[in-house]
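Q: what sequence does this backbone want?
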């Protein structure tokens, strides 16, 4: 099962390396990882997407909490949370297909961020399922490049 972990850490050199090492040393996979400064000065928020059964996730959370630089760990999968991801996708867009690609972009509320004679680069934002759908529908036109941010998530307000 997919889990999104929110990990608040002290912003010090080597923190990312220690967290990644914790996962790799125990044979756990990180599907996506985002790190940025948090609201509190001197801290960063890591959003880690991983998979595993309840026992594996409990083990990961316990190990993360043992790290000296960890302030707080929350499994957002168990809570109501807002999740978003961003994708840039460059699509082969020859004249006959350009209109159809633009219609699909409009349906999914994508932004056109770059245009060339043969390609369109689109920006899509949403949950993972939406971005997967956009990618699958544009596949038939010929995808040139894709860059995805991975998940960022915050707990919903009560």
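A:
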């Amino acid at each position: 099962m997919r889990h999104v972990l929110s990990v608040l850490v002290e912003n010090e050199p080597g923190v990312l390396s220690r967290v990644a090492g914790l996962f790799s040393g125990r044979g756990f996979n990180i599907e996506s990882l985002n790190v940025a400064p948090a609201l509190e000065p001197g801290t960063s928020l890591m959003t880690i997407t991983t998979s595993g059964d309840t026992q594996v996730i409990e083990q990961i959370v316990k190990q993360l909490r043992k790290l000296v630089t960890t302030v707080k760990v929350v499994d957002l999968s168990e809570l109501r949370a807002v999740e978003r991801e961003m994708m840039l996708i460059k699509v082969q867009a020859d004249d006959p297909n350009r209109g159809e690609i633009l219609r699909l972009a409009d349906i999914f509320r994508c932004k056109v961020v770059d245009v060339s004679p043969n390609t369109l680069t689109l920006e899509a934002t949403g949950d993972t399922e939406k971005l997967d759908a956009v990618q699958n529908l544009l596949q038939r036109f010929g995808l040139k490049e894709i860059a995805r941010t991975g998940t960022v998530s915050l707990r919903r307000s009560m």
